[in-house]
Specification:
Blueprint lengths: L1 E4 L6 E5 L2 E4 L7 H8 L5 H10 L5 E5 L5 H9 L4 E5 L6 H10 L5 E4 L1 E4 L3 E9 L16 E11 H8 L3 E4 L5 H4 L10 E5 L2 H18 L3 E2 L8 E5 L6
Parallel strand pairs: 4-5, 4-10, 5-6, 7-9, 10-11
Antiparallel strand pairs: 1-2, 2-3, 8-9, 11-13, 12-13
Length: about 240
């Protein structure tokens, strides 16, 4: 459902699964608006997160996108904190607006990339379809709109600082290269969106091996196609 602007938004507002979303034309493509209107945007990820995240949890999210998942979780669960990392600098202001519009105060947004270790800023390729923006300069039929230099932080340093209970990851194929470097055993659950069209069978195996090394087991009942869940054995807290 679309509506008029609110005091917290310069744009008309639409509603999806209880979340208010500003219809900023710079971000909200017709395809995205339709997915939100039909409650289908990131539905598999959101459904898995509802099963994995409990009140009092700290959540670390890689690939925050428009801020829908973090906003939804902060409204549905009394989380301690959500730290969301998004490489696309054009989406940071939109995330802030989403959180303010929904009166969410437990989410901290970081414009940064995570890598095996802290390094020099890295080129991030922004495309007209922001969902296809990535570290790769070549994605077929999707020309680059701009190239941004983004801060690079160390994966394990961030995990040690944040100390997450639940990890959510949707980073457009970079999961296969990044996650094998994870050395953190404090997770209770993880939700990973795989991109087998880019990482292939070897990359999928690398993600599974990384999660198993972190003490988590694949849990098919909470998984849905490319969105896969891992968790520690019961009892959970």
């Amino acid at each position: 459902m679309d509506g008029s602007a609110t005091p917290n938004s310069d744009f008309p507002v639409m509603h999806s699964r209880g979340v208010m979303v500003p219809r900023d034309p710079a971000v909200m493509t017709p395809k995205l608006r339709r997915a939100l209107r039909l409650n289908g945007y990131e539905a598999k990820e959101v459904n898995a997160a509802l099963k994995c995240v409990a009140d009092g949890d700290t959540v670390l999210e890689l690939g925050g996108g428009i801020g829908f998942v973090s906003t939804f979780l902060a409204k549905k669960r009394a989380v301690q904190a959500i730290h969301t990392y998004e490489a696309n600098p054009h989406l940071i202001a939109f995330q802030h607006q989403m959180h303010a519009l929904n009166e969410v105060t437990t989410v901290t947004t970081h414009n940064a990339l995570l890598a095996p270790r802290k390094g020099k800023p890295q080129s991030f390729y922004v495309r007209e379809n922001f969902l296809a923006s990535s570290l790769s300069p070549e994605v077929s039929n999707m020309p680059v709109k701009s190239v941004e230099e983004v801060e690079v932080l160390g994966l394990n340093t961030v995990f040690r600082d944040v100390k997450p209970d639940v990890f959510i990851c949707d980073i457009e194929g970079a999961e296969a290269e990044l996650l094998p470097h994870l050395k953190y055993d404090g997770l209770r659950a993880a939700i990973i969106e795989l991109h087998p069209q880019w990482i292939g069978a070897e990359g999928v195996r690398a993600v599974f091996d990384a999660m198993h090394a972190a003490g988590l087991s694949y849990f098919p009942r909470w998984s849905d196609q490319k969105v896969v869940c891992f968790r520690k054995e019961w009892p959970l807290k």
